[in-house]
Amino acid sequence: MKTLMLGNEAVARGLYEAGCAFVSSYPGTPSTEITEAIAKYKEVYAEWAPNEKVAMEAAFGACMAGKRSFCGMKHVGLNVAADPLFTISYTGVNAGMVIGVADDAGMHSSQNEQDSRHYARASKIPMLEPADSAEAIAFAKLAYELSEQFDTPVLLKMCTRVSHSQSVVEPGERIEAVKPYEKNPQKYIMMPGNAKKRHPVVEARTRALTEWAETACINRVEEGSDHSRGIITSSTSYQYVKEVCGDKYPVMKLGMIWPLPEKKIRDFAASVDELIVVEELDSFIEAHCRDLELPVKGKELFPNIDEFSQNLVAQKLGLEAPCAGCRVADAIPPRPPVMCAGCPHRGLFYTLAKNKITVLGDIGCYTLGAVAPLAAVDSVICMGASISGAHGFTKALEGAADGKTVAVIGDSTFMHSGITGLVNVAYNESNATIIIVDNSITGMTGHQQNPTTGFNLKGDPCTKIDLETLCRAVGIRRVRVVDPYDLKQTEDAIKEELAAPEASVIISRRPCALLKYVKHSKPVQVDADKCRSCRMCMKIGCPAISMKEGSDGKMKAVIDNTLCTGCGVCTQLCHFDALTAAKEAE
Amino acid sequence: MDTKNIMIVGVGGQGSLLASKLLGRLLLTKGYDIKVSEVHGMSQRGGSVVTYVRFGDKVYSPVIDKGEADYIVSFELLEAARWTEYLRPEGKLVTNIQQINPMPVITGAAEYPAELAEKLKAAGVQVDAFDALTLAEQAGSAKAVNIVLMGHLSRNFDFTLEEWMDAIEKSVPPKFLELNKKAFMLGREA
């Protein structure tokens, strides 16, 4: 039966139908829903791993054991998993293994705009690239066939617009595909003697896959009436090309993005006057055409920055595009994402900003501590970089940074890649102060469980990693817990730990205000007569607080009762008792 | 049939995903090719969000570009003004008149433009502005704004009331069904 399915759910459906039995992933927009969706199928074991490297190694172990396996991640997650990636290319698989990676052209929810296609060529692992949900199902299934036929892991490359678009699909039935495990040291033990013999196998495999690509129906030519141009494209770019060109120009639609066919592309180029490649981000297909010494236009027409759209493709191809509609003359203020009302991170970042502390930040909701009016963060690089960065920053200034620098990292990010940074802090003895903002969930990607929450992906209770014990075990002697809703307690702790002559960890602990089990207090009350319009309460950037003209004509604080969770942080800032918190939750 | 384009815009957390789900369910039963493109992740945290719904005989692009939208359905007035360039010349803006201040306005770094609905009309936009929030509250929950807006949008299409109600039944939990049906009718009759 036809149904609408999100691209990521369609990947999960394809995995399910192909008999995938083991999934290990780390959440990351735009890839997260693949794993959330597959977890709903009872036939499939699915888990959140602490990071992508662990996920990929776990998925490899499962495929070696004979079960079809999958690991999913966003583009930057593939950097974390790059170490096993390059070597499981050598070992190949037993049962099929598929690696899902989702790029984020346009950086809707990412810290960089890297093009993951380069990983396919660099690691010599074939990469399929669906352009809609129906292809997501079909390509996920095909990926397992290729994986087992060519003895290789297969990369399934998604992007924001394919992952997060729903389109029409027709789901099929599940097959079961299990293989026995047989010990095979030459294939699975990658020490130099064996690896030297596997490398030529990989090169031969690439030649065989290139042959396959020449005739594969997923690399198809769609005929056009006007051969003055021919367009090679894939993924969401294909959709934009077809949207604006229809059947005018012949289009080569590539479903396998590496290895790319040679003869097929040469033949296509010979059939048209001008060869154009339309691809988001880097020159990849275009570079391949240049390697084949074909005259081609790609990045001289199209940008290597940001995502495309149909109007952009039309404009760059010199075709007619619709004119923009009407708009008002007023400047429209931007609406950036903000920390939610009641967010436990708010009080912490206010305290850090107030004390003018250098903050090496990390990846998560708390990255929003960088945004005005808090503006409390000095750097954000990648998962875990806060702790290692704060260590280097502190060491480099030889004591001058002591008492002024902290790392801020979330509970999930700490488990992902903060622990090794903390080991370095302990081992090499810097005075860094590490603040773990523990909101009991992986927040930014939409509430995924992690090793510190006590629940697994399927929602069942499981071992809960104790952060205090873990930090002490790696050698940090000063470990304490504060409630970030209590500004004085938080400030005292930060000042004391910064003054301490050794490394310390402060765990700022409060569950995310959006968690269903979190009870909210009654909204904060404003006594307009007491409000002196000083705007102190505005310094925390709470979306529930604004200033409106009162009956005396002066600007007064106003609380939006639909947003306010009664956390009471603002009441601690008011010098005039104009803001009053309700008592405890009912 | 040429592709029809509907944009649903608002502030993260206002419930635009349910609105697009409802539209998707309805259009699927009518046998159209459909694409619905959503925003997940960071932008959801109180930021400006947009959902694209496209349907017709064959739909390629998952997004709607400037000058292409037949309808923009907006949960909030400033968001309506942000996206009107995406309307076709004959396109129509259906908008809630609710105003939610973005952080730059809250901090005083920017101003919320005054009289936006009037300015949009003066700029040449075909505007259908109404108070969806009050109707949602009448129906029983401020959260039903999304269904009130869909009810109001429904007046522009030939789909029958039964078809809409069927799609609502398939899209909301049973315990909120009556509330949502009431919200839909209040929007449709507004």
Indicate the topology:
The complex is a heterodimer of chains A (586) and B (190).
Chain A: E1 3-6, H1 7-17, E2 22-25, H2 32-38, E3 45-48, H3 52-65, E4 69-74, H4 75-80, H5 82-91, E5 97-103, H6 117-123, E6 127-128, H7 133-150, E7 154-159, H8 160-163, E8 165-169, H9 185-188, H10 192-215, E9 220-222, E10 229-234, H11 235-245, E11 251-254, E12 256-258, H12 263-270, E13 274-278, H13 285-291, H14 310-316, H15 345-354, E14 358-360, H16 385-396, E15 405-410, H17 411-427, E16 433-438, H18 467-473, E17 478-482, H19 487-499, E18 504-509, E19 525-526, E20 545-549, E21 555-559, E22 579-580
Parallel strand pairs in A: 2-3, 2-4, 4-5, 5-7, 6-7, 10-11, 10-13, 14-15, 15-16, 16-18, 17-18
Antiparallel strand pairs in A: 1-8, 6-12, 9-11, 19-22, 20-21
Helix pairs in contact in A: 1-2, 1-7, 3-5, 11-14, 15-19, 16-17
Chain B: E1 4-11, H1 16-29, E2 33-37, E3 48-56, E4 69-74, H2 77-83, E5 87-96, H3 103-106, H4 116-122, E6 126-130, H5 132-139, H6 145-154, H7 161-171, H8 177-189
Helix pairs in contact in B: 1-6, 1-7, 5-6, 5-8, 6-8
Summary keywords:
heterodimer, A: 586 residues, alpha/beta, seven-stranded mixed beta sheet, five-stranded parallel beta sheet, 19 helices, 17% strand, globular, B: 190 residues, six-stranded mixed beta sheet, 8 helices, 39% helix
